[in-house]
Amino acid sequence: MMQEGSTSLSELLDRVSRTLKEGFPESTWIMAEILELHVNQRGHCYLELIEKDPDDSGIRARARATIWASRFNMLRPFFEATTGMKLKSGIKLLFKGSVEFHPQYGFSINLTDIDPAYTLGDLARKKQEVIRKLREEGVMEMNREMPFPTVPQRIAVISSESAAGFGDFMDSITGNSQGYRFHTHLFNAVMQGDQAPASIMQALDRIYEEEDQYDCVVIIRGGGSRADMECFNDYELAFYVTQFPLPVITGIGHERDESVADMVAARGLKTPTAVAEFLIDQMLAFEFRLSAFRDQITASVNRTVQQRKMLLERYTGDLAHLTRGFLQKEAGFLQHSSMMIQRGISTLFVRKRDHLALLETRNGLVNPENIFRRGYSMTLHKGKTLKDVQEISPGDLLETRLYQGTVFSKTEKIDRKDG
Question: In this structure, is residue 59 part of a structural domain?
């Protein structure tokens, strides 16, 4: 038995339903983020919509929503063709919907239209927010300012082994027409979706552990939708690239848009094939520089040889002239010396001849014969010249030689001088 003034649950909910219809008689444009999305077998799309608090990212509001199959089959292709991305969790929508309330199923919103421009604008806003944050932190240009290796031959490749872009890259790099040899090492990673940023950062961590074995890092994939590329606008991934100690080259295969990862990388190229061509061009440029250096060295050597040849020829002429002058001078010196020697010898001979004549004169003066001629004599005792009377005794025989003859005598008396 019901108490007076009370109401049943169904009546209450019917009143709520009527009140909502009266308060929201027409469809309203609503902004919300998709938390969950599910399409059943009949083609109806069921969503869980939320609104986050801008200060702490907590959930401020939550509601269920429905897109009936007939409407969903029109809205989804239009949205995906316009935005280049799929309807999925994590994207923000501006949609037109009517408020519904069912006593059994509760509150929900029936989506009847979607504005793709809002979603694109929100993605662009997020991208610009990431760029602004990186610029404020002063890291935007760090990897770009890193010196690029002169000969980038040792390449660390981050990609999915099954990706078509990886195959295109390897075909181009290994089959280059110049015949350059590259050493590549694949670090396998997820290259699209929510898991991609963390997977790529893990690959960068593995490369960092052996960074001295590589010249640069290449991040490549084989194209895809705009939604597939959204992971390359992730702040954490972009910051990781800016801090990496090796130059990073991106080739993620998106021709129409440039991701934040492209902007912070040392080189942001459009496709994996473009990355391969860039690396080949670096090798070719180095070869051209070597050729230029070789030509410069050859020209320098030729100039030096020519200069030295001319200098040698001048020195040869100077040496011949100096040699002739020296020989002439020495010949004059030798002729003068010869004359001086001859004059000296002649003078010496004259002096020696005069000396010999003097000696001959002196010798004549001391010749015994000449002395004997002047009245002198020489006494000998036993064949020896007698110089002292102490050498003889009375009765000794003596021999006295005169100028003309010899006298033999016998000693009778010896008169000795005192002292």
Answer: yes
